[in-house]
Amino acid sequence: LRQPAERRGRVDATLVLGVPLASFALQAGLVRDLEYGLAWSALAAAAFYGSLAAWVLGRWHAELRLLGESFLAIGAVFATLAIPLALDARWTAGLWALEGAAMVWIGRRQGRLAPRVFGYLLQPAAALSLLQAVWEAPPDLPLVNGLFVGALVAAVSGLFAAWQIRRLAQAPAWERWLYPAFLAWGLVWWYGAWIVQIADQAG
Fold first, then answer.
1. What are 92-123's pLDDT values in tens digits?
2. Where are the alpha helices (DSSP H) in the chain?
3. With b meaning 16 or more CB within 10 Å and e meaning fewer, what string describes 168-188?
4. Do the Cβ atoms of 49 and 78 come closer than 8 Å?
C-alpha cells in the first residue's frame, strides 16, 4: 500500500507463495503423530487464506487485486489438499470432480483462464483417484456404493465442464477443443459406471 501507484499491484512471489509452503512443511512435522492432523492443518490454512482473500479483495479490490487473488488461489489449493488427507479415494474423486466443475464455472463467469485450467486438471486427478479405489474397494451394495456414485459424479462434472466450455464467449483455440474431449469424457464415465455396475451384480 505504501509503494508508488505503478508498483502497487505487484506481488512478491517468494513471500506470498513461499511462506505457506514452508509453514505447511513445518506443520507436517508437528502433527505427524496426530490422526488427521495434516488434514485439519490444510483445512485451517484454507480457511485462513480464504478469509484473508475476502478481506483484501473487499477492502482494497482495485489496489491489491492480484494479492487477494493469490491468497484465494492458495486457499483453494489447501482445501483441495485437505480432501485426500482426510477421506478415502472414492470420496476424494467425487469431491475433486465437483470442485473442478465449480472452478470451470467460476472461471467462465469471471472471464478468467486460471480457474478454468485448475478445474480442467482436477477432472483427470479425480479419475485417477477413482480408478485407485476400484482396485482397493470390495464389492458393495448395488447403486448405493461409493464407486458407482463417484463415477456418476465424475460423469456429471465432465458434462457440466463441457457445457461451460460451450458457453464461453472468448477462449483460446486449444480450450475450444476441450469441449468434445470433456463431452466424451463425461459420457464414458456415465455409461461405464452403469456397465460396470450391471456386470458386477450379474456376476
1. 788 888 888 888 888 888 788 888 998 999 99
2. 13-30, 37-59, 65-86, 89-110, 113-136, 146-166, 173-176, 178-202
3. beebeeeeeebbeebbebbee
4. yes
Cβ-proximal residues to 49 (8 Å cutoff; 6+ apart), any chain: 20, 71, 72, 74, 75, 78
Q: What is the pTM of this model?
A: 0.68
Helical pair 65-86 and 13-30, crossing angle rounded to 10 deg = 20
DSSP secondary structure letter of residue 172:
-
For 115-130, write each residue's pLDDT tens digit: 899 899 999 998 888 8
* Main-chain dihedrals φ then ψ at residue 7, nearest 5 degrees: -115, 0
- Are 8 and 64 contacting, i.e. CB atoms less than 8 angstroms apart? yes
Q: What would the grid cell of residue 131 be?
A: 480408478
d(CA 7, CA 202): 66
